[in-house]
């Protein structure tokens, strides 16, 4: 791999190349951006570039240093991952101990903190001292998806480089190239912002069933009947984990968007390209205002799931809103009243 293979992050890569060329390398960087957009890969390539034996084409990927870093066995390149749910002070102290000895003259030590937002307060304070008073020549790279969770004192000592979400078309193309079904590759590419995360999602055992079941479920909601409410218990809560409810809602929003575009006659912008007949049939059963109301209901449900609420209550309220609002609450909830 090389800088050129970090797709979609040309501006960040150019900044790093300029820093190396002009010998203005910072002692600490923060690579911030969504999951799967190349932050960790870029950090490893940066470590290679700083230690490449062929500086005119760094990182060359051919010299001994580049190969060792690429294989993960370079003694002066350290990657800290969370130990459990956090990066702990013991890990930072061990790093300080290892870096207390001077490296060879040609080596720039690099420490990469993956999921840096998980640093405990004690570990963060210890790292802060380490950044302020490095005992050897080194560069730190903090990788995070949640930049606002980092201590401001740590962030202020880093050069911030923001990684952009990858365009869905790029992700879709990459997934298809790896053998993912094109229909599901397109959907996954619109749900997450990185190739690796999208591939993991698309290849998951439940992804296709959730897509199919969601489409049928959405097709039943405009009828105003209680079946979609019953299915919350019999299908969604019975067969899927609570964590998968977010996926259901994200898919629902994309599907309603496709139905809206179908009603408006928008051509060539569908996410669910493999379900043309279902799109056309369902779009005819929704009015423009009901589709907009439905999308708003999904967004509100997605926000509600972030709090201490029961998924069943959230999904029921969403369906009821799509079917006409609170006036339906009593009649629609009747099937569940005997379950307590």
Automatic annotation (TrEMBL):
<dbReference type="InterPro" id="IPR050238">
    <property type="entry name" value="DNA_Rep/Repair_Clamp_Loader"/>
</dbReference>
<keyword id="KW-0808">Transferase</keyword>
<dbReference type="Pfam" id="PF13177">
    <property type="entry name" value="DNA_pol3_delta2"/>
</dbReference>
<dbReference type="GO" id="GO:0003887">
    <property type="term" value="F:DNA-directed DNA polymerase activity"/>
</dbReference>
<dbReference type="InterPro" id="IPR004622">
    <property type="entry name" value="DNA_pol_HolB"/>
</dbReference>
<dbReference type="InterPro" id="IPR027417">
    <property type="entry name" value="P-loop_NTPase"/>
</dbReference>
<keyword id="KW-0548">Nucleotidyltransferase</keyword>
<protein>
    <submittedName>
        <fullName>DNA polymerase III subunit delta</fullName>
        <ecNumber>2.7.7.7</ecNumber>
    </submittedName>
</protein>
């Amino acid at each position: 791999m090389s800088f050129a293979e970090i797709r979609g992050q040309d501006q960040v890569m150019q900044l790093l190349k300029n820093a190396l060329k002009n010998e203005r390398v910072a002692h600490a960087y923060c690579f911030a951006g969504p999951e799967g957009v190349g932050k960790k890969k870029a950090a490893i390539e940066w470590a290679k570039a700083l230690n490449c034996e062929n500086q005119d084409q760094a990182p060359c990927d051919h010299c001994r240093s580049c190969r060792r870093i690429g294989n993960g066995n370079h003694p002066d390149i350290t990657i800290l991952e969370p130990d459990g749910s956090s990066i702990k002070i013991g890990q930072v102290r061990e790093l300080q101990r290892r870096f207390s000895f001077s490296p060879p003259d040609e080596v720039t030590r690099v420490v990469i903190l993956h999921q840096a937002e998980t640093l405990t307060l004690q570990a963060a304070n210890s790292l802060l001292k380490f950044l302020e008073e490095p005992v050897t020549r080194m560069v730190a790279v903090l990788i995070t998806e949640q930049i606002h969770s980092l201590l401001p004192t740590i962030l202020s000592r880093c050069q911030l480089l923001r990684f952009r979400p990858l365009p869905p078309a790029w992700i879709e193309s990459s997934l298809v190239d790896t053998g993912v079904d094109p229909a599901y590759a397109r959907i996954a590419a619109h749900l997450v912002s990185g190739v690796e995360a999208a591939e993991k999602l698309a290849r998951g055992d439940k992804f296709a069933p959730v897509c199919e079941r969601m489409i049928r479920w959405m097709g039943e909601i405009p009828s105003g009947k209680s079946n979609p409410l019953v299915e919350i218990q019999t299908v969604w809560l019975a067969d899927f984990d609570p964590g998968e409810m977010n996926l259901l809602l994200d898919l629902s929003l994309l599907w309603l968007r496709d139905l809206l575009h179908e009603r408006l006659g928008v051509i060539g912008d569908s996410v669910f390209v493999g379900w043309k007949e279902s799109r056309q049939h369902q779009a005819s059963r929704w009015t423009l205002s009901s589709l907009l109301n439905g999308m708003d209901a999904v967004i509100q449900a997605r926000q509600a799931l972030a709090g201490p609420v029961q998924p069943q209550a959230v999904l029921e309220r969403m369906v009821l809103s799509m079917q006409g609002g609170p006036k339906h609450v009593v009649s629609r909830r009747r099937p569940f009243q005997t379950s307590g």
